[in-house]
UniProtKB/TrEMBL annotation, chain A:
GO biological process, one term: pyruvate decarboxylation to acetyl-CoA
Primary role: The pyruvate dehydrogenase complex catalyzes the overall conversion of pyruvate to acetyl-CoA and CO(2).
Protein name per its UniProtKB record: Pyruvate dehydrogenase E1 component subunit alpha
Dehydrogenase E1 component domain ranges (all copies): 21-311
Gene this chain is encoded by: acoA_2
UniProtKB/TrEMBL annotation, chain B:
Domain of life: Bacteria
Alphabetic keyword roster: Oxidoreductase, Thiamine pyrophosphate
Residue span, Transketolase-like pyrimidine-binding domain: 7-182
Record flagged with keyword Oxidoreductase: yes
Name under which the protein is recorded: 2-oxoisovalerate dehydrogenase subunit beta
Top EC class for this record: oxidoreductase
Native species: Cecembia lonarensis (strain CCUG 58316 / KCTC 22772 / LW9)
Pfam families, alphabetized: Transket_pyr (PF02779), Transketolase_C (PF02780)
Classification via InterPro entries: THDP-binding (IPR029061), Transketo_C/PFOR_II (IPR009014), Transketolase-like_Pyr-bd (IPR005475), Transketolase_C (IPR033248)
GO molecular function, one term: branched-chain 2-oxo acid dehydrogenase activity
Top-level taxonomy: Bacteria, Pseudomonadati, Bacteroidota, Cytophagia, Cytophagales
Amino acid sequence: MKKTKTSKRISKAEGKRLLHQMQLIRRFEEKSAEVYTETKIRGFLHLYVGEEAVAVGVIQALDEDDYILSTYREHGHALARGMDPGAIMAEMYGKVEGCAMGRGGSMHLFDKNIHFYGGNAIVGGHLPLAVGMALASKKQGKKNVTCCFFGEGAAAEGEFHESMNLAALWDVPVLFLCENNLYAMGTALKYTHSEQQLEKKGPTYGIETATVNGMDLLEVMAATQKAVDYIRKTGKPYFLVCYTYRFRAHSMFDAELYRDKSEVEEWKKQDPILQFKKFLLEEQLITDKEIAAMEVAVEKQVQEAVDFAEKGSWEPVEDLCRYVYTETQGS
Amino acid sequence: MSKTITLTYREALKTAIREALQKDERVFLMGEDVGHYGGAFAVSKGLLKEFGPERIMDVPLSESGFTGAGIGAALAGMRPIVEIMTVNFSLLAMDQIFNNAATLLHMSGGQLNVPVVIRMGCGIGRQLAAQHSHSWEPFYAHVPGINVLAVGTHEDARGMLLSALESPDPVIIFEYTSMLNLEGDIPENAGAVDIRKAKIRREGKDLSLITYGTGVYKSLEAAEILEREGIDVEVVDLRVLRPLDEETFLASVAKTHRALLVEDAWRSVSISSEVSARIMEKAFFELDLPVERLCGVEVPIPYPKHLEDASVPQVQDIVDRVRKILRP
């Protein structure tokens, strides 16, 4: 297990681009909560607020050809991957213009064109898929990496252990990316794992493993780059545990009875966006004026996503049975 | 007319796997003991030597993990054949099959195909007791998004896999372990078969025996016995348990006006429950008599041979029931 150190040198343009991505995710999520309360979005809605540095940091290290699989808390990953915010919002509205024709909703964002394979809502269920996709890449002689995001809750599932074993046994290029936000829904890590240092589980499978402070964008970027370099070079799996925290409730139904407000406030001092802003200002990579302008631009982008979703259309009920089989084969 | 060859059900299955591997380099077989052991039922014996470990992959005992990996490989452009040793272990892979394979096309709004083929040995008849004798076709046939096939004949053992591999959607194939050593004749040039339609295995006019899996040969044997008594039954092999080809069995009922449904699976919420309901809904006025069923007795399968035999319909049971229906 290695702790990764960063050389914090980035260009002005890159700094702005990264901050913009994190801001976009933050505002997009806040807006989603707003329109949820207006009952425009229904079902489950899991927000990524507080964890932005992980999605943005990890995805910087990935190439266009790499595959990404994510969890039901995946809006941030989809946005960081470059999915159109309008298509995501329309999906959550259930409109045909959504990235999955409105069939999936918040938990099931898909876009094959950017190799974004969900939006998977059975905890741990997508880990075997990731191993299989990486296996396919290996068999096809492709050099791409499969990046699989999951939470620490998933590490208690059998599928986590089966997948780690298979990936190591078969030497396939998969990045197991654990977002350890300390709570599996409302149950703390200490109540769910006999070994709470999840990073100890990697080496038992012979998998190269590291941890990183998931609240620090540049550290996440550096740690992931190192992981991805290793995978591309060796073709072997890698396990990276990001220590992070979600600032908002698990879902819109969660009254947050399981943690103290003071704990949340303590973590908010490490807000990845505030920290990164501070860094950019200190390094004179951005000005207050530019930050203000960025906030206006992000606000506009998010509003446009909502407008797009509002203007979207409902799929006709006659089409209900589409997408069950590739061609209609009767009932 | 082409020549026929005689082979066992096992040989027919193996010939199909070999042909699939030869035809398409995206195809590979993965499963417990498929390689070095030669397959738990010797279906893949020798294939590791012939095709190598990249194409014939032994996997650890991780049904969810390797079935999910097969689904993932299919998503990423391969054509995996996942062998789950028997249906008895497949519940450990059900999350992958139902929550992933069956839903991804739909959840992605039509973007993602899952062309995975999952083969499972299944059924009763080898005194393997309650945990190793399951007939769980109905579980799988319940779920939209997957195709479910039952290999009831040598022709289908030779052909269904090849057709399944052409499907852009997941296909579950049930193979009957009690039939592995049965010999049968198929055309020498037999190959892919239609996996959308049920098939009339024997034409008759007095009653329709509607069945699948091991029920097919049992029904055909029963039909021969009944023929000597002047009773002429039709045998309908459903073959495709999802999506059901109701056209074929409804037409048969419209011809014979009587139906006896035969299957090994437990009676409640079974394939025959569905077939019966559809006959009531769509062919009620064709019926001269109520639809009758011979199904698995609702008990965990016992070990002793005489009790095991009594747990599922046998040839004599079919003969007796048909006589009772036609000559009360």
